[in-house]
Amino acid sequence: MNIILVWGGFINLKKIKIINVIGVFALSFLFHFMYEWWPNVVTSIFFPVNESIWEHMKIFVSAILVWGLVDKFLLDKFNIYYNNHFFSTVLTSVLSIALYLIIYLPLYKIFGETMFISIGLMLLVYAFMAYVSYKILSGNELNINKVFLIIVIIVTYVSFGLLTYKPPKYFLFYDTNKKKYGI
Description:
Largest sheet: 2 strands, antiparallel
Structural class: mainly alpha
Number of helices: 7
């Protein structure tokens, strides 16, 4: 593994994954307001349109996928050996939704909506996803069909779009601020 001296030490895969957590977390705050700043059909599919729990899941997927491009650039720029980058990015973007909801929903039922829990858990999920990504990137090359991964991304965003414009009447999709479902 080729390593370059920078930032008071060597840049390696672990440090790239730490940068990943910070970058994805920062993008999340930016992405939270994208629809509010530019309300249109495109931003409604990729970014939350209201304050429902489900709409915020778009932040996870979009932030991880977008930061995946930066991640790939950094890995290549610093000549860091890795495998399975596209698979890692797609898997962690979708897996982050499941992990967040599995932990968040019981806390939500107990404590209600609290920003501290929401943001703290988001950071925790990003850190765990970076760990999962680290393990995949440092593992053996997997033979994963990239067309399948592209289909997963497309299905995810089509689902986001459908659930934004035709949300089920279930608490996960309810915006408690505007007292309504969807847009």
